[in-house]
């Protein structure tokens, strides 16, 4: 199988190739390409973070910081697009008699403006020396760290276990939250920890095989259902802001309130649906491969 560094380097190379393949379409404003680039960026950041002992930490820390910033820029562009379509779909399902005022127009103008501003920031980032330097470093063989030579089947499971411990801790905090807003934020942290555990397992799967892939699937399910919950919470914030703007302009806020209530219920339903995946991911039987 080889060393941990070799496995991580192979994974990094694959994700960099996917990122590079998406860049031309990202520059053209293709939202699917933005999504693909964002996923590759997140996978890179997770791999460099979880498996830092097999690589040079000074290099990986700098790369992770740059990838975090790139991820935020990609996320702003992607989220505005997704939210616009989700809110329009929600609005289209309403009885026309319950749509009072230029609600669709406000949604379109607000989210389109956010998407265009985000695309401008993304274009600037992709044209920057920072991005060029980031790609240059990532496309080279990364220097090894103190555990670079250790066997992949030993070092990778142990490091992956840390990512899963982090998920356990996030779930404990979320379970103790009583305030709804605090709980929403805590569940978002659970989602991020699940994503990290998933990607850590995907890397380790190159050395461990099927057991790690099973763990990755469990974490992915948590990530998906809590993503639905977080998106609903975010849309509620947007609707509150749009309602406030409508009120200032003398328009009815009735429809925004209805949509907000529907998004609130969608978020609650997603949180209820998360119970089973969270129980499954918390079980330690599927984690035996971590040692």
TrEMBL record:
InterPro entries referenced in this protein's UniProt entry, alphabetically: CHAD_dom (IPR007899), CHAD_dom_sf (IPR038186)
Every CHAD domain range: 1-283
Transmembrane segments: none
UniProt cross-references to Gene3D superfamilies, sorted A to Z: CHAD domain
The protein's name: CHAD domain-containing protein
PANTHER family reported in the protein's UniProt record: CHAD DOMAIN-CONTAINING PROTEIN (PTHR39339:SF1), SLR1444 PROTEIN (PTHR39339)
SMART domains from the UniProt entry: CHAD
């Amino acid at each position: 199988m080889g060393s941990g560094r070799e496995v991580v380097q192979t994974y990094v190379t694959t994700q960099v190739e996917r990122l590079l393949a998406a860049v031309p379409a990202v520059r053209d404003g293709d939202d699917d390409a933005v999504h693909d680039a964002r996923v590759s960026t997140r996978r890179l950041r997770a791999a460099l973070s979880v498996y830092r002992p097999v690589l040079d930490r000074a290099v990986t820390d700098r790369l992770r910081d740059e990838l975090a910033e790139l991820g935020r820029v990609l996320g702003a562009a992607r989220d505005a697009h997704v939210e616009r379509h989700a809110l329009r779909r929600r609005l289209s399902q309403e009885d026309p008699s319950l749509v009072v005022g230029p609600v669709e127009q406000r949604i379109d103008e607000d989210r389109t403006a956010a998407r265009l501003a985000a695309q401008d920031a993304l274009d600037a980032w992709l044209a920057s020396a920072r991005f060029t330097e980031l790609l240059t470093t990532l496309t080279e063989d990364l220097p090894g760290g103190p555990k670079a030579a250790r066997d992949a089947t030993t070092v990778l499971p142990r490091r992956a276990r840390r990512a899963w411990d982090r998920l356990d801790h996030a779930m404990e905090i979320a379970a103790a939250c009583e305030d709804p807003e605090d709980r929403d934020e805590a569940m978002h942290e659970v989602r991020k920890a699940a994503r990290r555990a998933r990607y850590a397992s995907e890397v380790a799967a190159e050395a461990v095989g099927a057991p790690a892939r099973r763990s990755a699937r469990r974490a992915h399910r948590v990530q998906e259902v809590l993503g639905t919950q977080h998106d609903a919470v975010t849309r509620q914030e947007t609707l509150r802001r749009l309602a406030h703007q409508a009120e200032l302009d003398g328009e009815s806020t009735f429809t925004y309130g209805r949509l907000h209530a529907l998004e609130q219920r969608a978020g609650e339903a997603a949180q209820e649906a998360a119970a089973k995946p969270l129980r499954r991911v918390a079980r330690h039987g599927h984690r035996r491969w971590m040692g």
